[in-house]
Design goal:
Number of helices: 20
Shape: globular
CATH architecture of the largest domain: Up-down Bundle
Number of strands: 0
CATH superfamily of the largest domain: MFS general substrate transporter like domains
Radius of gyration: 24 Å
Largest sheet: none
Strand content: under 5%
CATH class of the largest domain: Mainly Alpha
Mean pLDDT: 83
Helix content: over 70%
Amino acid sequence: MQQNHVPTAAELIVGAALGCNTAWASMAFKSLSLYTGLAQSEAILDTVYLVSIVCVALTLVVAGVYDQATERLLSRKESMWALPVLVAASTLAMPASAALPDGASVVGMVAAGAVAGVASGLFLIRFGIAFSRLSTNSCVIGATTGTVLASLLFALFLLFDRLSACAFAASMPVLAGLLLSYGMHMLVDQGKAEPESASAHDAQACGGSSRGSKSELLRLTAKLAASSVLVGFSAEVVRTLYVQMGVKDLGGTAYALVEGGGAFAATVIVVGIALLLATLKTPRMARNIYHFLILLLVAGALVLLVPVVYGRRAALVPHALNSASYACFGMLMWTILAGVCNRWPAQRVRTFAFVRAGWAAGPLLGLVVGRFVLHGVGISIDSAMPVMMASVIAILAASGFAFSETDLVRAMDLLPLQRKQHFREKCAKVAADYALSEREHEVMVLLAKGRNLPFIQEELLLSKSTVSTHRQHIYAKLDIHSQQELINLVQETQA
């Protein structure tokens, strides 16, 4: 990440839009505030949440399969306003339907939840498209702003009465749409975001058309989706038990302070530490942040037994820790995903949709397992222990296999950083000055990054002998004898 980047008003506005959209999901599905005073309010919330999250996942999968049609649909100006309005209307319809007679109530809740799921899924893709048009610096600022603001807005929401809570929650998607449109227009005018029309036509220039890069895209998409499923499952099943083990029993203002204020405070601390780690001038910056977030996720799961043994109030701090760590992990994944979509603009809708479908499927699985434990087994040491172990294993599998350190570094290498542009310009100048062929240029760039021959073979789909021959020709044309000399030459070149 480029150092000393001062956030602009436009970047903060786009981040605020993301925060409003993220906060809406918490308001609609992680609190009973919309259903205060209704009989079986918890069952009602479970119903609309289940229907909505299933529809979100299905919508994202369908959008990924029919990505070109989806992008055409979302490119229409009408969709920018229709989608948030539909989300807002469904937000009001869910509690309104719950107050109807039995048969009509069920039909109304299912319909409202389905509309909310489909509309919010498509609206989320609009955010993915918008963020894919930004630099990494802008993405980090936007994701950080959105993460912190979402926690704050949710904390405020929990203090409202039912009528005020409904109005506040319904306003979030509309406000998100307004802020996103305004902020992106500002960034385009400032030259800090690609115009919405600049997408697929630039795919070849971005390297998205070569067989090697397509293979890399598929691999990253699968890994990011798998990691999202595993971490999402762990966070949701643990959150479900923490809430049921005592957080919700506090009620009213106390619950608001714990659920919202505690998570907000923890999120600010976690984000602050992560950003501090990001300022470290070390090649391990990305790994440091990743290790830190994984450690927090594991810690949030490992202390699941604490409230079982020491009483319900002991769930407060672990719950805040789990909420904050999951939010910050999502912030990191959001930035990486936006960068990957920027690298392959022709595939951005498909990539974003499939990965976010995994992000929806994970919590869905966690919800099902958590509800099974609550209603089928009951909370005890015997039931909490396997949940804890499953959660920890899921997180470790996500970081060790699904999306490892190596995957993180390779993904970060693709992000549209300003410093990378300088590097590419230097490489292009060296290639032009020494009359390198197009393929020699590609090999030289990877060698200048410190890549070894096996990596270059895999990346460019070349044989070992071909890569060795290209390397010899490059060294001969540049009159050098080692990879280190090449790295020094590129660094010393004035682009």
